[in-house]
Write a structure and sequence with these properties.
The chain is mainly beta and about 90 residues long. The protein is built from two helices and six strands. It has one domain: NE0471 N-terminal domain-like (2-Layer Sandwich). Helix content is about 10%, strand content about 35%. The strands form two sheets. The chain has a three-stranded antiparallel sheet with strand order 1-2-3.
Amino acid sequence: MSLSSCGANILECEVTDINKNGIWVFVKGSEYFISFKNFPMFKNIPVGKIFNITFYSPNHLHWKELDIDIELDSIEHPEKYPLIFE
């Protein structure tokens, strides 16, 4: 049995990597780096909780269990958002 066409890609957001400097997140075809320097609230969070991420259109990342919300613009342009929350 073979499929004539693939189904639609429903994946909108996922954490693709975590290293000592931050988190890589894939969102709607683009990859973003969330550095621990600019987003220190993630630095000491257990890995399993970081992977539990949701994307809300048009540009909102949400970690329900951690009560953390980030706009994609703040990742792309951290210079526009000088306050660092801890």
